[in-house]
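note to self: the first set is below, dont mix up w the second
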Amino acid sequence: MTPEKPIALVTGAATGIGAACCRRLSESGFRIAVHYRSSEAPAMRLAQELDDAFTVQADLSSPEAIDGLIAGLKEKAGRVDVLVNNAGVNVNAPMPSMKLGDYDIVASLSRGTWYLTKCVVRRFMLRQKCGRIINISSVVGHTGNPGQVPYTMAKAGLDAMTRSLSQEVAGRGILVNSVAPGFIDTEMTGDLPEEVRQAILSRVPLGRMGEAGEVADAVDYLATRASYVHGTVVHVNGGLYCG
């Protein structure tokens, strides 16, 4: 990256996959900007755990909040070397009964992810002539999942953004990739009924849920070593989907 300590911004970083990414990138020498929307207490604890990390708060559905986030990063760090677009939101319901507002909740975060990425690219990475963008998508963006139409659309869209943006920034020193986790053992999946969990496991060739740290391993690889990986979706799903 640069002789300075590189900066990694991880969105939705307080828990789960986001927190695992923060820990792994910190171990690799990054100064971490731990983003959160409402989970202040766990974000603060995580930042205190990591070397020289700091928290940044923003509702990514608000362009004004993102502008404030970018200004804060400029003041606190002066640069962004890695952006991990991990923040996500889901509303479960069959499509015939889902309300338009439920769709808007998911779509507004997708818009915010696009806008945040645009701002980071324009205000930091193009000027630095280097950077890594890593979008955390999902296996369901490729396989589909009943009751999650807006979420699967959003995750498929992230991978589409990866492919298109990678072509736009080719030759600018910026690499853009996705990591698509399968079913990972986090707080979100921990609430699944046992029969649902077993049904999922029956479809996974490795016969187990993944761990957040295994997703973070792929993110760390893309952030630090993958110099010839660009516009690619890296699947971390135990064989559930082979794309």
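second set (the one i keep forgetting abt)
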Amino acid sequence: MTIGLLATAIYAADMPAQGFGLHIGYAQPTYRLNDANESLAKDSLVNRTQLHGFKIGASYDASIIKGFGSTIGINYVFGAARTEWKTSSQTIGQYPMYRSQLYYHALEVFVDWQYKFEVAQETYLMLYTGPKIQCGLSYKKKAQQDYFDNITAYPEGDNDLFDDNEPNEDLQRLNVTWGIGAGFQYQRYFIRGGYDFGLINPYKNRQFTAADGTLMDRNTRGRLDSWEIKIGAYLWYNK
């Protein structure tokens, strides 16, 4: 798939350019859990927690035939979330409560094939679909405890859920999605919104020790989905 994306980008670069633009918008990445046995999934992954954040990036449009073309680009993705307070046997004190704060950073490359319907002069409706390849930079989990109404961080500090050196963290850095979306363009300005479906399992296969001391495999399965809405403008646009 990576080779196909690169080939599309090279092919698109040889076509008459429509424009180069910048965009920014809201994003909501969500790690979903599909494993039938949820007890085998580690709680620290905060499964199904929705991350609220933004995307900022650049894109390059190229036409193939009138109305039909492709867009290639790159995004920086940020997301954050905070879990509800929970009790834990690991906390010490009269109020054994804890929660996690999550901070997600990633880069993604995307290719969209799109069709624009001209509904008025320099005014278009568009439909698009295509893949994204995403590389996670970090996914930090900062644990907090509430001890006599005094919120403090745990001594172990931040954990990166992508870190291969952390034996208990289970997320792959690489992720591939396929998205569908729609948008509106007026002259140099546009708005786009869509949903991306995860195509690969973002969880690593890990081993854990059962209560009886038996070493077992934890084959957690799921996907990373995301939806977005962004606004942008072409810095250079050739009709």
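remember for set 2: The CA atoms of residues 139 and 200 lie 18 Å apart.
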